[in-house]
Amino acid sequence: MGFIIGPWLAQAVRSAVDLSLAEHLADGPRSAAEIAAAEGADPQATARFLRACASIGLVAYADGGFAGTDLLAVLHRDAPMSLRDLAASQSSPCLWRTWARIPEAVRSGESQTTQALGMSFFDYLAAHPDEGRLFGAAMASMSAPVIRDAVEVIDVAGVTTVVDVGGAHGSFALALLEKHPGLDAIVLDLAHAVPGAQAAAVERGLDDRFTAVAGDFFKEVPTGDLLLLKFILHDWSDDECVRILANCRDALHPGGRIVITEILISDDAAGIAPLMDIAMLATVGSRERTLAEFDDLLTRAGLHRVAATPVEPPYAVIEATVAG
Fold it and tell me: Which residues form the active site (predicted)?
């Protein structure tokens, strides 16, 4: 039954985010009527919903009302490593409707986004900017613990310029700039991401060392000493990955490195990695990969792996240089 009612749980969490329960309960218990009034919601339905949230540990009964729990706290917008945006995005229409077609994805081996949404996934996000912004924020929150670990294991000796390829708002590059004052960074993404990247750099006081440029990594990548590819290759087919990697190879300064941060999966993998693999199949027709599969992509692109370091499970930092 726990598996069967999974959709109820996911949508309950999404609703808790939409109703800002974590924020309303951050300073202490409140009644259902108070929360309903603050949200303009139906009082009786709000009380019933809070009772349901109590049954799964999101809230607790307290003083005739409801109190937040440690589980709810991670949905607060200001929580360290907040999951608020991720919870909202993963239960939003662009993903929910596609994942309803996982049986068809398994039978066909192909993405189901066009059948579910009428267009490709990234075209849909461009056509629905509110969902696109939410998805971008969700990916940033998913990235946060991985970036935290990755910046600790990446060697920047001899590096002057970092290029965050497909880096959205440049969270990875900005984290490296904060840790290493001698670096400059460029983030490359589609035009709609550039203002957000510039704003993120200003907010963190790093805009004097940071440049956001619009472009297409299938065509050209800015040159640099260290090129970052975080959660990029799992969106694309093998042939498309080779094109991206070859463009990154051509953009490397002599002695430069490419750093790939992705899930590493195995045939007997447990946990989230195999589920993410199927989600990628249904959404964009792509996959999570084994280390051997990454090695094959690198070889085809004229690159050679020099390191693979585990970080936040199931992710790893894979470093590559031009094959000699």
Answer: 234
